[in-house]
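Q: Could you write out the predicted structure for this multi-component system? I'm mainly interested in how the pieces pack against one another.
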Amino acid sequence: MLKVGRLADYGVLILHHLGRMRPARLAMDSIAEITHLPLPTVRKVMKYLVDAELVISKRGPNGGYQLARPPAQVSLAEAIAAVEGPLTLTECCAARSTCEIHDRCDLADRWPGVNAIVVKVLERTSLADLDRFGRHEPHVPPPLRELMAPIRHL
Amino acid sequence: MLKVGRLADYGVLILHHLGRMRPARLAMDSIAEITHLPLPTVRKVMKYLVDAELVISKRGPNGGYQLARPPAQVSLAEAIAAVEGPLTLTECCAARSTCEIHDRCDLADRWPGVNAIVVKVLERTSLADLDRFGRHEPHVPPPLRELMAPIRHL
DNA sequence: AAATTGTATACCTGGTTAGTATTGAATGCG
DNA sequence: CGCATTCAATACTAACCAGGTATACAATTT
């Protein structure tokens, strides 16, 4: 699995569209329309995005939502975390781990390292970058180079 | 979230211990003991690991489980996939996507690129590598360098 | 003030996951 | 040959959580 929840997925999709419109505003029902998502669901997602200050909302006639920053400055990590909370691959990685085994587990202090790398990949991928990904092999530049160290060839 | 299920987590932990023992065999109740996991749960996990051919089982007196390959040749990706099936960040990334929106979604062909990178990180991290991760900053070497291309600084 | 648009809360429900129990089959040993 | 040991397979239950929905409320513009 290694899943990102559907709501978070929706969040990214919505941010993507807001990015394309920026700096224009988009009303909630317009968002529902262009994303083909049910309106009540959009409502829920928008709340998360506003709370996380990724989008700015304006009420009243001609109100709507606007991406708070240029798409190149919004990371997937932020987007996902906005909807689902902190990015933790396992319980071990959470701030307050609730894992029964935690203190007797050989891996409790190893997972965070793996988690950190995965998170960094997502942190360094922006909404704008997303546009460049095809279904084809992704190509990625040097900024991530120094992240990779204990990882070996298999 | 971006979660790995608990069973998969257990699976990795078990593989880790089997790796430390290799090539010795370990009976199921011994595994339960050293991992501090309930035995019925271990049973379930072992089935997945055997089916995936990551461990070899032997029955009868002095039977038990043995890691099929050296720990350096077992990736986290395999381990997780053994328990949870294909690694797909979102529905879009699955072989047969069941997403309602899929064909009308702007991102349907973009997620797989992100997915591929995350998966590659996990593919290039072996059980042996796991031992080297501390709670501290992880360092990762060049093999992942060329993966990173459309990712920009934020 | 009225229309438009976002905000907040609370609830339901269905599916997945984790955990368990039971019965069966293979292997090795004396 | 048969008994002890150990894994294998199936099916069930229970809890939780994500996703989805409904409804009533508040703010802003004109």
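A: Regarding packing and overall arrangement: Confidence is low (pLDDT under 50) at residues 135-154 of chain A.
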